[in-house]
């Protein structure tokens, strides 16, 4: 048997076991806290998201702007119309945001593993950005089908679908219909577009949050200490940073996921046809509602994450 090395008086195998347990506990807490934050985001932000999606996918001339979308939606369906299509993200938001924050935590661990002999435990902005980009990769596998179902439900509420388009009664009906239409491939349509949106977007998202929270940390306090005012402002800023660069791929994602089968062959084809038909400005449709949603929804997200994480830290 080999000799057992001690680190700070603790046998190495015991130290490794303790470190592994701590890492697992942190991953679990990141997963749960992300889910709580996601629910908060949907409750606050869904009306803005619906408005954005309808602007992005409607035929030219259907709406004059975001306010017109809201007015026509309220006139047609009342206040409940502003929450049409909320069930898919609400059901899927726990795994989406849970995986996102879990993957961000994992991304930070990978950064630490890549540079174990670091001068300070604090990650640089570049390292946070890399961890943020990484978080989008596993998250996309969950987000793409949820977004697909959400977009289909949101768009059919406009009432101007092409003749013969199937009307769905709810999220399960959407999933069944999409599978019957084109199998798993149909359910996951728009996956590359989702990653194209969320990769750079998540990099900006987490970097902006960490940088802003650090800048707003009260004198004498560490950025990690819970300060609700700083969390709200930093969370809102993170959302603005993400959506300031995410709208063009989001437009393509919405069009890919809402179009009848065979309309586009993929991301590049959809981009080319969108610009050819509606001009380059079409890639920024929905920018107003997205930015209007960005601050409150993501302030709610990070508030939910930080408060729940603080409570979880006290439990285990």
Automatic annotation (TrEMBL):
GO CC, one annotated term: mitochondrial membrane
Gene3D superfamilies: Mitochondrial carrier domain
The protein's name in its UniProt record: Probable carnitine/acyl carnitine carrier
Signal peptide range in chain numbering: none
Matching InterPro entries: MCP_dom_sf (IPR023395), MCP_transmembrane (IPR018108), Mitochondrial_Carrier (IPR050567)
Subcellular localization, as worded in the UniProt entry: Mitochondrion membrane
Family (UniProt): Belongs to the mitochondrial carrier (TC 2.A.29) family.
Recorded topology in the membrane: Multi-pass membrane protein
């Amino acid at each position: 048997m080999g000799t057992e090395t001690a680190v700070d008086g603790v046998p190495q195998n015991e130290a490794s076991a303790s470190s592994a347990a701590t890492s697992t506990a942190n991953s679990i807490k990141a997963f749960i806290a992300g889910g709580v934050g996601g629910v908060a985001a949907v409750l606050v932000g869904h009306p803005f998201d619906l408005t954005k999606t309808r602007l992005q996918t409607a035929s030219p001339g259907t709406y004059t702007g975001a306010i017109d979308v809201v007015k026509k939606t309220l006139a047609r369906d009342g206040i409940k119309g502003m929450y049409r299509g909320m069930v898919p993200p609400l059901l899927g938001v726990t795994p989406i945001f849970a995986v996102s924050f879990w993957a961000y935590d994992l991304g930070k661990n990978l950064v630490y593993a890549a540079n174990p002999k670091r001068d300070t435990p604090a990650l640089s902005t570049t390292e946070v950005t890399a961890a943020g980009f990484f978080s989008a990769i596993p998250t996309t596998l969950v987000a793409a089908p949820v977004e697909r179902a959400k977009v289909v439900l949101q768009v059919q509420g406009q009432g101007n679908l092409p003749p013969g388009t199937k009307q769905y009664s709810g999220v399960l009906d959407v999933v069944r219909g999409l599978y019957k239409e084109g199998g798993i491939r149909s359910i996951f349509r728009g996956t590359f577009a989702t990653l194209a949106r969320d990769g750079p977007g998540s990099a900006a998202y987490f970097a902006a949050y960490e940088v802003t929270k650090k800048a707003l940390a009260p004198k004498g306090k560490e950025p990690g200490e819970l300060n609700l005012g700083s969390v709200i402002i930093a969370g809102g800023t993170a959302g603005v940073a993400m959506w300031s660069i995410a709208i063009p791929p989001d437009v393509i994602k919405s069009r890919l996921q809402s179009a009848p089968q065979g309309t586009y062959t993929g991301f590049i084809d959809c981009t080319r046809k969108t610009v050819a038909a509606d001009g380059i400005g079409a890639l920024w449709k929905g920018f107003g509602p997205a930015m209007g949603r960005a601050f409150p929804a993501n302030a709610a997200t990070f508030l939910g994450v930080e408060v729940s994480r603080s409570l979880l830290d006290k439990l285990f």
